[in-house]
Amino acid sequence: MNCSSHGLRFIPQLHSSITELLLQNNLLTTITQGHLDMLHNLQLANLSGNPFHCDCSILYFRQWLKRNKAISVMPVCASPSELAQRPIDELTDADLSSCVSDDCSGWVYNVILCLMLCFLIGLLLWCMQLARNSAFILGIDERHTGFEAESLRSLKPKHRVRMRCSIGSLSPGADDIDKPLLNMDILPQILDVLHKQHNIKIKVP
Predict the structure, then answer these.
(1) Where in the chain are the domains?
(2) Which of 117, 157, 178, 181 has the fewest CB neighbours in a 10 Å radius?
């Protein structure tokens, strides 16, 4: 492929079967990332005589020139002024120090982001495990005159909250106190369902 001295500002679409790439004396300032990767059969390449601007965008082209043995004439930088006439393949990380520091900053940012994400996932799993293991005990005395609820997972020191509700205060007749509030025949079934499905343990003194 011979496109030398055509005033090209960018490289046209290339085919993998190309063996010669002659692009000297054009107006190329940079090479797009990955644009030359398909040239596996390349035997001769000349990209000299182009006004390449050697900033962060030249990193891909620098690496491509270093590993490619088909270059006949090594292209040089046209700008910035401190890098003018420097062969592109000889540029060091110190010459492009701003690009290296940007890469490091991005790496540190990604690590911090991953650590924060792992922390949030761990916190969520811990909360789910704590909720799964929590249980409550409901105590009913023999006369059904009140109830007691206490959490098995309360913070230390454990605090127990007792609530007493007089059944007699809800009914004007004294005989109503002796009436059972539950059908005692089905009480074992109720206790079993509460324990297995709702993790609630019933304690009858």
Answers:
(1) 20-95, 133-203
(2) 157
User: In this structure, are residues 83 and 95 in contact, taking their beta carbons and an 8 Å threshold?
Assistant: yes
DSSP string, 91-146: --TTTTHHHHHHHHHHHHHHHHHHHHHHHHHHHHHHHHHHHHH--EEEEE-TT---
Q: Over the chain (205 residues), what is each successive 10-residue block's mean pLDDT? A: 90 89 94 91 93 93 91 93 93 82 60 89 86 59 44 43 43 51 68 73 61
149 secondary structure, DSSP code: E
Query: In angstroms, how far is CA 72 from the centroid of its own chain?
Result: 45
CB atoms closer than 10 angstroms to residue 50: 20
The answer to pTM > 0.70 is no
